Amino acid sequence: MSSTIERHLYDVVVIGAGGAGLRAAIEARLAGKRTAIISKSLFGKAHTVMAEGGAAAAMGNVNSNDNWMVHFRDTMRGGKFLNNFRMAELHAKEAPERIWELETYGALFDRTKDGKISQRNFGGHEYPRLAHVGDRTGLELIRTLQQKIVSLQQEDFAETGSYESRIRVFQETTITELMLDGDRVAGAFGYYRESGEFLLFETPAVVLATGGVGRSYKVTSNSWEYTGDGHALALRSGATLINMEFLQFHPTGMVWPPSVKGILVTESVRGDGGVLRNSDGKRFMFDYVPDVFRKQYAETEEEGDRWYDDPDNNRRPPELLPRDEVARAINSEVKAGRGSPAGGVFLDVSTRLPAEQIIKRLPSMHHQFKELADVDITKEPMEVGPTCHYVMGGVEVDPDTGAAFGTVQGLFAAGEVSGGMHGSNRLGGNSLSDLLVFGKRAGEHAAAYVDTLGVRPKPAKIDVAAAAEVALAPLARAGGENPYTLQQDLQAVMGDLVGIIRRAGELTDAIKRLQELKARVANVSADGGRLYNPGWHLALDLRNMLVVSECTAKAALEREESRGGHTREDFPKMSPEWRRVNLVCSLDETGEVHLERKPVPRMRAELIDLFDRSELAKYMTDEELAEVEAE
Amino acid sequence: MKRHFRVWRGDASGGDLRDFDVEVNEGEVVLDIIHRLQATQAPDLACRWNCKAGKCGSCSMEINGMPRLGCMTRMSTFTEDETITITPIRTFPVIRDLVTDVSFNYEKARETPAFAPPPGVAPGDYRMQQVDVERSQEFRKCIECFLCQNTCHVIRDHDENKPAFSGPRFFIRAAELDMHPLDDREDRKEHAQASQGLGYCNITKCCTEVCPEHIKITDNAIIPMKERVVDRRYDPLVWLGRKIFRRDELESASTKPSFPPIVNPSTANPSTVNPPMSSARLPQTAPVGPDGHMDIAELVAPQQGGLSPFGEDLEFPLPPEQIAYHHPDPDKTPDR
User: Which of A323, A513, A530, A580 is catalytic?
Assistant: First the structure.
């Protein structure tokens, strides 16, 4: 095997080519930095394409009562007040600008009658807020950013004669390790998936935009890429992860047929009138409205139905509760034996809207069910159930710059891989706007960080050699474990023991089993050579999936309450004491996951004033409330 | 139940169809079978995939000779005793097994002029009617699976046409921008004709047939583009009008920002026949040295010459006081 390592010199390297990564790269390039984008897949295939509903931004195009303060309030409520308030604030304030900017890149959103960007209703959002393109908003977003990058490359071509002189996309390339010089990021080491050849990026700044961790779960809407690479790279380079116990299970994934189990059915189906029914035909969501939301949701089917046409005078139907509530409700119905044949519940839009309206408003859902499941959603209900969808936790970052906390410098994170913004539960539509807002910020501040450096950090040769050895190990090892078996075993542990409903005993068991898996992953081997070998690639990804799963399991065991994307059967209540605690994971010198508690940053007074005292009382301790009163 | 499959395995140097018997369950698609093959019989079988829901366009392959997405081809569409043959898409060079080098498409994308924002319209002030954006939206549904490119007979077995022909994917991109209500460029059709090779298309509609998004590529993009190109280029009335109003045109042209024509490197100089199609990876595989590779760092580095093993910010010669050097004979140091 050749040990040649291609060396590349860049100012900013962005790992991940989804929405956050591309937006960060655009910003770094606009700041004049030589920028590389690393993508595990082909350019433009990132998981962002799967986002259907839209991008939340308080533009007030449909309801002029909407503004950033209302959006901020909804985001904090959705995250059960555990959100990093500053991130939620920046997000709500900057999202409209980021959406409008996309139009200057060529995006074509659906329009209102007066020609502005149309906005749709979505779970947890008080007003119609999601800019959308039918139900393929994510595709529009990724294509728009992709085409903007191409247009920047065309500008560079006109100026320098080379498309790649300032921004280059490394397609089908995986980064396996970050290189440090002391505490500073000095580079990134990886391989071309196509050829299996190694490359080393020498760069003082790295932006992580690698997305989530869903591939560690059996039933997931996530693609193969979602193996927690960014989370693991951050940990190994000395950064910290927060809130890893919070995973969002999207309430409506397809459950039939088996080949598409997990694939998402967009929330807009419910936003546009779809209702959830159990096997008795009952609209069961009315039985599951928690006290904190009682005031905002309809109590009768009649009131809920009136809301679609007259939202100002009626309360919304409970099908539009935040995702965690709906997922739990479906889980309970199925457990009580009122589920559908394939183990979900029925989501019905066929009796609610005329067929042509359904096709107009939900074209890709209609298409998806027709092609994948042979179900015509204009004629019959869909079978849906919860699917692992999004990780709220992630790299602990500075809210304003996206710079990772911990010991490392020069590391930035944006999008799903970063944590804090969504608290314990993300509202639908907030992820597309999140990745635009914080993608831009991370790119901007990574570029600014590079300017502050006097000396370029250098990767040590010995680290590069070590990274190459680790990467080649599964190929060199003969007769070790099959990576696909190991992945299935990991998915079984996480799905069965660290799933939607968690118990202390099962979590302890999971941590033990993850330790056993760790030993087995150390002995993984891959058949074949270096040329486009998916078995080898999976063998390398397993290490990342495992360490991130361990963080999730440990944090889930530690947090003794139920909140948002973390439900403990043995601690079913939300605890005001726990609201003040973030769980932070890091790696110690031996490579073991270390967990510690950190206080949640305190919200500024003018932001606290946006909430009713009675609402704050549901989340805060008496002591905190007294402090708020005193101010 | 076990079903019989034939899957092409090999790489750029060649390969052949291999026989596999694989378990198939109710409700599965072809991509499920490939995954089962990887997990049980052929762990290194190369195949692209991502979303598994027909939204990303990664798992393009030819199934019984038909260009299809693996994730959107249900096993129930075949009879129970049918042998299913899976091959890589034919128009692009094979890398390994079912994975092909599709960089042709990314190069053509770069040669298609980007959206030109309307000058003087601030972000947030864009106003468009739904009915006007819908025409372009149809083309923006494209998931870039490149099945249309693969099936297009202009390039399917004619590598020699590739330099001059962008293919259906980029005709709909040109049409999309042409129909964009606020795009500021007005030469989209001319560009399609002059630089994208629109004239090669003889409207056999194969691209429309294979499109998994059911975009009416031929009817809604290619034919209208051809018609309008014909209008502009050959319509005698238009020609006459141009002659008469030439001065006005010149004036309006001077008030509008003018765009330099995007030079299409592959069509600009027709005398260079058959340039290598994929320049994306070319420098990286230049064969030099006994190991078959050269260190390409110096080709891609921002400065001339190879990268310094000491780092790029170190200047030579170093100041003498920074050098830890002890003369072997202390008596003979230059100072004494």
Answer: A323
Give the ranges where A477-528 is alpha helix by DSSP (H): 483-497, 504-521
The 10 Å Cβ neighbour count of residue A282 is 13
A148 contact residues in B (CB cutoff 8 A): 114
Residue A9: its chain B contacts at CB < 8 A? 297, 300-302, 307, 312
**CATH superfamily of the B2-100 domain:** Beta-grasp domain (3.10.20.30)
Q: Does a cis peptide bond (omega within 30 degrees of 0) precede residue A257?
A: yes
In a domain, A41, yes or no: yes
Q: Which residues of B touch A42 (CB under 8 A)?
A: 48, 58, 102
The closest CB to that of A2, out of B177, B293, B302, belongs to B293
A323 carries an active-site annotation: yes
Helices (H), B256-308: 265-268, 297-300
B286 membership: H or E segment, kind and range:
none
Query: In a 10 Å sphere around its CB, with 0-12 CB exposed, 13-18 middle and 19+ buried, how is residue B85 labelled?
Result: middle
Quote the tokens at residue A177.
Answer: 């390790």
* Shortest distance, CA B237 to any CA of chain A (angstroms): 33
**Per-residue pLDDT reduced to its tens digit, B144-203:** 999 999 999 999 989 999 999 999 999 999 999 999 999 999 899 999 999 999 999 989
Cα distances from A255 to residues A184, A347, A384, A596, in angstroms, run 46, 11, 5, 37
- What are the two backbone dihedrals, phi and then psi, of residue A568, each rounded to the nearest 5 degrees? -105, 120
Does the domain at B103-268 match CATH 1.10.260.40? Answer given as no
Tokens for A250? 């999207």
State which residues form the domain around A187.
5-246+392-461
SS3 A195: coil
Do the chains contact at B53 and A263, CB–CB below 8 Å? Answer: yes
- Known binding residues of A are 16-21, 39-54, 229, 250, 266, 389, 416, 426, 431-432
Q: What is the ipTM of this complex?
A: 0.88
Q: What are the pLDDT digits (tens) for A491-533?
A: 999 988 998 889 999 999 999 999 999 999 999 999 999 999 9
